[in-house]
Amino acid sequence: MIYTQCIRRVRAGNAVSPNSPVRMQVMSRNVLVIEDDNDIAQLVRMQLAGLSCETTVLNDGRAGLAEALARPYDLVVLDLMLPGVDGLEICRRLRSERRYTPILMLTAKSTELDRVLGLEMGADDYLAKPFSVLEFVARVKAIFRLVDMMANTAAGEHTLIECEDLKIDVERRDVTVRGAPILLTAKEFQLLLHFAQNPGRVYTRGQLLDQVWGYSHSGYEHTVNSHINRLRAKIEIDPNSPEYIQTVWGVGYKFRNAPEN
């Protein structure tokens, strides 16, 4: 098969298919909520309690940043407009750390520019206030599912995907390009992996939202565009002329076709 020229699998132990559904484990997770609106903070805390989360709430950006850097959290729920240090700066600082922390951004600002700024800084997802409680819970679950999927996969099949100078170690979440390590957020990694496992297949933005983000609400196509742009900036020699993640005009995106013999 042509595809095997772009992927090499090394199996160890009982294999777990990357496409197999993974149930969320019932476990206590530590979540940091940095939100200066006390009513929203308590609403978020209540919803997280229903997901078996231990929640720390801080309403000041400076204190929230210090806490986020002081110890690992399974998720940071982050407001954009905060006293002391704003959410964009907190997001930027967390993404400069080697340790990866999922970030769900909440904000009263709802323009496309604000959403893109948050995602460009490295937020994994974004909700504009006022938001649906059910949608908030769905977004949190989607982030936790991704983390669980990576952890469960690491215990099973060891897969190394190689395509020219791009190498993806699925279990270790290591990505290198031309031998240099590339630091990706969890969502960026999942998006790249989804493309690389399906070379040549064209995806619309709606399909990527459904299959990678786990929801397909209209109006969130900018989320896909932003993540594609960030991925290209990290893995492409020339992001304006991408070698790996290619645009199919009028349709969507695809990962490069595997080379033929």
Characterization of this structure:
This protein has 261 residues and is of the alpha/beta class. The chain has two domains: 2-16 and 156-255, Arc Repressor Mutant, subunit A (Orthogonal Bundle); 29-150, Rossmann fold (3-Layer(aba) Sandwich), CATH 3.40.50. Helices cover 37% and strands 21% of the residues. The strands form three sheets. The protein has a five-stranded antiparallel sheet with strand order 1-7-8-9-10, covered by helices on one side. It has a five-stranded parallel sheet with strand order 3-2-4-5-6, with helices on both faces. α4 packs parallel to α8 and α6 packs across α8. The termini are close together.
Shape: globular
Based on secondary structure, the structural category is alpha/beta
CATH class term of the largest domain: Alpha Beta
The string of secondary-structure elements, in order, is EEHEHEHEHEHEEEEHEHHEE
Helix percentage:
25-40%
| CATH fold annotation of the largest domain | Rossmann fold
Q: What is the CATH architecture annotation of the largest domain?
A: 3-Layer(aba) Sandwich
Q: What is the terminal separation in angstroms?
A: 10 Å
Uncertain residue ranges? 1-5, 7-25
Count the domains: 2
Q: Percent of residues in beta strands?
A: 15-25%
Helix count?
A: 8
Biggest beta sheet summary: 5 strands, antiparallel
CATH superfamily grouping of the largest domain: Response regulator
Radius of gyration: 19 Å
Tally the beta strands: 13
- Average of pLDDT: 80
